[in-house]
């Protein structure tokens, strides 16, 4: 695997993971105006370069232009932007990565567990949270909320998925957050700190249906229930 393919993979990784403004992955690189723009253009035919130019923070945009070969950058940025898990690679008959790979090398998913630390650092994924296949970076959001404020996150759930874990944690037990899940076929919650049996600054849920969960658009809404000041939190979906 040469350096260009690693850089290319890193670019694709940073750009195709994000299904819109209410995103789990890498949304910290977007400005508020950029997230609003993505919401307004959800599903439209735009390029990766459009997203980078309009939705990126100025710092991330300039950093990418400065550190990536211009010809390679043009090749990547001229490609279509695919919304969330709607990439045409798909997941059928892919036992190695059952829920869709995030990082690819040539024609197959890249197993990130097989990379050494220096390779992961070169791709900017040394701290990535992986699913059990080792190919897919799972959804996460690192954000903050104030009293009465809300943060909404979107995830496109694939077909034939019968369970997933939703883990919201903020550690400070003096503050209280609330989590509500909205599925295509109904609402779950709201859930509070003690909903999982412990008051520990964390809400840990496992959603499971033997017949399969409803595929499509799922939303998680985190709300500041009782917050003094601003509370930082992280939401993981595996």
Keywords:
238 residues, alpha+beta, Jelly Rolls, 4-stranded antiparallel β-sheet, 6 helices, globular, disordered N terminus
How would you describe what is shown here?
With 238 residues, the chain is α+β, with helices and mostly antiparallel strands. It is globular, with a radius of gyration of 18 Å. The model is unreliable at 1-28 and 85-94 (pLDDT under 50). The chain contains six helices and ten strands; from the N terminus they run H-H-H-H-H-E-E-H-E-E-E-E-E-E-E-E. It has two domains: 3-123, no CATH class; 139-237, Jelly Rolls, CATH 2.60.120. The protein has helices at 3-16, 32-40, 48-55, 58-67, 70-77, 117-123, and strands at 104-105, 108-109, 139-146, 150-157, 163-169, 176-183, 186-191, 202-208, 216-226, 230-237. It has a four-stranded antiparallel sheet, with no helix packed on it. A four-stranded antiparallel sheet has the order 4-9-6-7, with no helix packed on it. Strand 1 (104-105) and strand 2 form a beta hairpin.
Quick summary:
By secondary structure, the protein is an alpha+beta fold. The chain is built from six helices and ten strands. It has two domains: 3-123, no CATH class; 139-237, Sandwich (Jelly Rolls), CATH 2.60.120.380.
